[in-house]
Amino acid sequence: MPRPPRPDDGAPGTDETAPLYRIKAELFRCLAHPTRIQVLEVLAADADHTAPVSVLLDVTGCEASQLSQHLAVLRRAGVVTSTRSGNAVEYRLAEPLVAELLVVARAFLLSNLAGASDQLEAARRLPALPGASARAVLDATTASFPSA
Predict the structure, then answer these.
(1) Contacts from 74-82 at CB under 8 Å and sequence distance 24+?
(2) CA 96, CA 82: separation in Å to the nearest integer?
(3) Euclidean distance between CA atoms 146 and 148, whole angstroms
(4) What is the b/e burial string over 23-36, where b = at least 16 CB atoms within 10 angstroms of the residue's CB?
(5) Structural element, H or E, at residue 84
(6) For 7-79, where are the alpha helices, taking DSSP H only?
(7) Start-to-end C-alpha separation, the chain
(8) Which residues form the HTH arsR-type domain (predicted)?
(9) Phi and psi at residue 65, in whole multiples of 5°?
(10) What is the pLDDT of residues 6-30, one digit of tens each?
(11) Counting runs of H as helices and runs of E as strands, what totals does the chain give?
(12) Burial 72-97, CB ≥16 within 10 A → b, else e
């Protein structure tokens, strides 16, 4: 049986690596709301990974104050950036890697929904997430499921 890591041996969870795990946990914490995932998928689906707040409001159905709070969480985590032009504010994925993360998450979702045909069909109607190299993972996963 492997021994648990000790604080001085550089293994995961030690003083040296603990901050990295906290950063990663914060990333996943910022993703832990359906509205924030929806916002990120809208941004990922756009060729430039951008969308104005007006589009995000329409797609999510949120009140402006609610959406503003969700966007602030994503900004603080460094997942999105924003630019203002007059009264318009546009949001952008901070890194194209976020789009890849979403594709892999969708592939994981579809894999777990294999036995739930109603939910699987709803998942297939989600907006496309083009341009991510992990798209092959999603395509391979969805190809293995029978059509409803």
Answers:
(1) 74/30, 74/36, 74/39, 74/40, 76/30, 77/26, 77/27, 77/29, 77/30, 79/27, 79/30, 79/31, 79/40, 80/39, 80/40, 80/43
(2) 15
(3) 6
(4) eeeeeeebbeeebb
(5) strand 80-85
(6) 18-30, 34-45, 53-60, 64-76
(7) 46
(8) 16-113
(9) -65, -40
(10) 555 555 556 888 888 898 899 999 9
(11) 7, 3
(12) ebbeebebbeeeeeeeeebbebbeee
Contact 30, 79 (CB under 8 A): yes
For the segment 94-145, what is each residue's pLDDT rounded down to a tens digit? 998 999 899 888 888 877 777 677 777 777 777 776 654 444 555 555 555 5
Q: What tokens does 33 get?
A: 């709301």
Distance CA(66)–CA(62), nearest Å, equals 6
Single-letter code of the amino acid located at 21: Y
Q: Residue 56: CB partners within 8 Å, gap ≥ 6?
A: 39, 42, 67, 71, 91
Residue 4 has pLDDT above 60, yes or no: no
User: Do the beta carbons of residue 5 and residue 12 sit within 8 Å?
Assistant: yes
Domains detected in the chain: 31-115 (1.10.10.10)
Cβ atoms of residues 56 and 45 within 8 Å: no
